[in-house]
Design brief:
Layout (H helix, E strand, L loop, with lengths): L10 H11 L6 H15 L3 H9 L24 E2 L15 E5 L2 E9 L2 E10 L4 E5 L2 E2 L48 E5 L2 E5 L14 E5 L4 E5 L13 E5 L2 E5 L12 E5 L4 E7 L13 E5 L10 E5 L3 E5 L11 E5 L7 E5 L1 E3 L10 E5 L2 E5 L10 E6 L15 E9 L12 E6 L14 E7 L10 E5 L33 H9 L69 H107 L4 H5 L2
Parallel strand pairs: 6-10, 14-15, 15-19, 20-24
Antiparallel strand pairs: 1-27, 2-3, 3-4, 4-5, 7-8, 8-9, 9-10, 11-12, 12-13, 13-14, 16-17, 17-18, 18-19, 21-22, 22-23, 23-24, 25-26, 26-27
Length: 695
């Protein structure tokens, strides 16, 4: 700031001068944030205008690959897709998305504290990004419907034409209809995306929970006014589609307060249904006609959790947290309980103990729920989890007791890996280029696609993984990233064990990988192993194999106690061999070693935290001492200022008295001059005889 410092008594100008003078010492990020905030204040729609300018027609497929995404996917390691020089979304997290056909749609997100209002689609066959500027649904009249004329079709590596891009009817330029939002939810309902809630920075932040719908077939966006009692606005919630109803649970409000309520939105009628606990009594008023009773104990209030739907009946919730607490529990909501009621069930989890987490993501492939990323109040979660949901029956009778779900810990990433992030969006995609079935489960849904996230750096890469055919029969008890010396890898019967060289090759790709299940032949299966499924593990902690691992029968690797997953068929009794007994001893020793290492790591972490606390206490004491010194100096300055002010007042009084005396002296001087004039005149007049004679 080249302007001279203003007078200190002018507080406003002095404060402005100090703020501008400190800009030179500000970091580039803070300066840019201040600049963006100033832009928001001067012209709030600047970013929308920028997006409208960038969305003008141009060659978006430049540098794109003609090889479909599933051709890059590997079974044992995550692979980053090459995007070439094409335009792609900016890095972000807290976004959301969904798969419609062969396209993954990404909506909004958070980048550097700024909420985004862009909409993108990624074609998994042509490997191209496309930014979409949707048309308001009210502008698509019957007289001017969207055109179904496709653009020239591209072709993939197999020569099959990609699905055509729908070209909308020409309309006048309008401001993008997608509002800036983050922490929202997206559900695929036919060819539509239903976007619920989300954090927004506007005067509408305290309005009822908004319902927005994007029509992928005609590139149209609309805001729906749902009837009934709308939930309070929120972000970080979960929304699960069961039939034609959306179940919304949890989240956090505009004050970042965790919520634990449950709401239901009937999509065909766009009507909200309220829920009430059984203990709250029966509805008695006519307006309670759309009230649903809920049994059981609901999960504690939380946000940034994940949910999935099994058998179009059960809603499974994992993790989440509040400002001070994170969770790793699993809760199930049965939407077809007896009497037309909903029922909360706290599930039991069998497997290794995992860290509590929030901000993670999940995708259901077959009957396996894959969970990635997240973090807690201590550190980030770098492992990949898998939960087997085959224990949830699709039959009408309600669950007689809390089900037991099998959990696997399938490997870990380095702390700064792109997938060791919070706020990632992960979806399941198809293994082949053929179109998906019109209805029912998709047997070719066998890949995971992850986009975005934040781990100290905002991400915009796409990573894919082809899940193996079978899950391990025994959950891994080795900590993620740790290398065991056991000769018993967790694998399905008959599956080959991986060598150390292969594990090293997998680790070089950014993820610690164990013996990954490649699949097992039907002849090698027995009743002690779980049923073979399409879901599996990407990678787990590397385990060195020994020749002794090949000894024994093919089905003897799994203990009898672990033979039943989620209440399935119990394991057949088998006589353990000496090799298996030695293996179990080695596994127990390894578990003890791992526990000891974990204890040592916890002790070191506690010591480091204690040292950090002591250093912070010292810094705080120093700052407090400096503050006290500054306060004393300020008090002394105030006292000196008071004394000087008293002197100024005294001098001002003396000056006033002096002015009065000077005024009196001036008056006296005037009177003296008048008297002198009179005396002079009197002395010049004749006196005596001369005056009598008139001389």
């Amino acid at each position: 700031c080249n302007v001279l410092k203003p007078w200190s008594w002018n507080a406003v100008e002095s404060t402005k001068w100090m703020a501008w003078n400190q800009l030179g010492n500000m970091s580039a990020v803070e300066a840019m944030r201040l600049y963006v905030r100033t832009l928001d204040e001067e012209q709030s729609d600047w970013y929308a205008l920028l997006l409208a300018e960038e969305a003008k027609p141009h060659n978006q497929g430049a540098g794109a690959s003609l090889i479909p995404a599933h051709a890059y996917a590997q079974t044992d390691v995550w692979t980053a897709l090459p995007m070439g020089e094409q335009r792609k979304p900016c890095p972000r997290y807290e976004h959301s998305g969904g798969l419609v056909g062969t396209k993954v749609f990404i909506v909004g997100g958070n980048y550097a504290g700024r909420y985004l209002n862009d909409l993108w689609s990624f074609d998994t066959l042509s490997m191209t990004w496309q930014q979409l500027v949707p048309v308001p649904a009210t502008r698509l009249s019957k007289a001017n419907p969207p055109s179904a004329t496709p653009f020239p079709a591209d072709s993939n590596a197999n020569g099959a034409a990609t699905e055509p891009q729908v070209q909308t009817a020409p309309v006048l330029p309008v401001q993008p209809t997608v509002v800036p939002l983050a922490g929202h939810s997206v559900n695929v309902w036919g060819d539509k995306l239903v976007i619920l809630g989300g954090h927004i920075k506007s005067k509408d932040a305290n309005s009822p929970l908004p319902v927005r719908i994007y029509h992928t077939s005609c590139n149209a966006w609309e805001v729906v006014q749902a009837s009934g009692t709308s939930p309070s606005p929120r972000g970080g919630h979960s929304s699960s589609l069961v039939g034609n109803k959306l179940y919304i649970f949890g989240g956090e409000d505009a004050s970042r307060r965790a919520l634990g309520d449950l709401h239901i939105l009937d999509l065909p009628s766009m009507m909200w249904e309220r829920t009430v606990g059984v203990a709250a009594g029966k509805p008695s008023k006519p307006q309670d006609i759309h009230l649903v009773k809920v049994e059981g104990t609901p999960p504690s209030p939380r946000s940034a959790h994940i949910a999935t739907v099994v058998h179009d009946r059960y809603i499974v919730i994992f993790g989440g947290g509040s400002v001070t607490t994170c969770f790793s529990d699993v809760h199930i909501l049965d939407t077809r309980s007896e009497g037309g009621r909903l029922r909360w069930i706290a599930a039991k989890v069998q497997g290794p103990k995992v860290s509590p987490r929030a901000g993670h993501t999940g995708a259901l492939v077959g009957s396996t729920w894959y969970i990635l990323g997240g973090g807690n109040n201590v550190n980030g979660c770098t492992d990949l989890l898998a939960i087997d949901l085959r224990g949830l029956s699709a039959s009408p009778p309600a669950l007689a007791s809390p089900p037991t779900l099998q959990l696997w810990q399938l490997g870990a990433f380095p702390p700064r890996h792109a997938l060791s992030s919070e706020g990632v969006t992960m979806v399941g995609i198809r293994n082949i280029s053929k179109p998906p079935p019109a209805s029912g489960p998709d047997p070719e849904m066998g890949m995971l696609l992850a986009f975005g996230g934040y781990n100290g750096k905002y991400q915009n890469a796409i990573n894919v993984l082809r899940v193996p055919q079978d899950l391990p029969s025994t959950p891994s008890s080795v900590a993620p990233g740790a290398k065991a010396t056991s000769s018993t890898p967790s694998k399905a019967p008959g599956a080959p064990a991986a060598t150390d060289a292969k594990g090293a090759a997998q680790a070089s790709n950014g993820m610690a990988s164990p013996a990954v299940i490649k699949g097992s032949s039907p002849a090698a299966k027995d009743v002690s192993s779980p049923p073979a499924g399409k879901a599996g593990a990407a990678a787990a902690a590397p385990i060195a194999s020994k020749p002794e691992a090949a000894k024994g029968p093919a089905g003897a690797a799994a203990p009898a106690a672990m033979g039943s997953l989620g209440g399935g068929v119990p394991a057949a009794p088998e006589t353990p061999s000496k090799a298996n007994q030695e293996t179990e001893k080695q596994v127990q020793e390894q578990e003890k070693q791992v526990q000891e290492r974990e204890k040592q790591a916890q002790e070191k972490e506690k010591q480091a935290q204690e040292k950090e606390k002591q250093a912070l206490r010292k810094q705080l004491a120093t700052v407090m001492a400096q503050l006290e010194t500054a306060q004393k100096g300020m008090e002394d300055a105030r006292a000196a200022l008071g004394r000087e002010s008293a002197k100024v007042l005294r001098l001002e009084g003396e000056a006033a008295e002096s002015h009065k005396k000077l005024a009196l002296a001036a008056e006296e001087h005037k009177e003296l001059v008048a008297l002198r004039r009179q005396v002079s005149e009197a002395s010049n007049k004749p006196q005596g005889v001369r005056a009598y004679l008139g001389f």
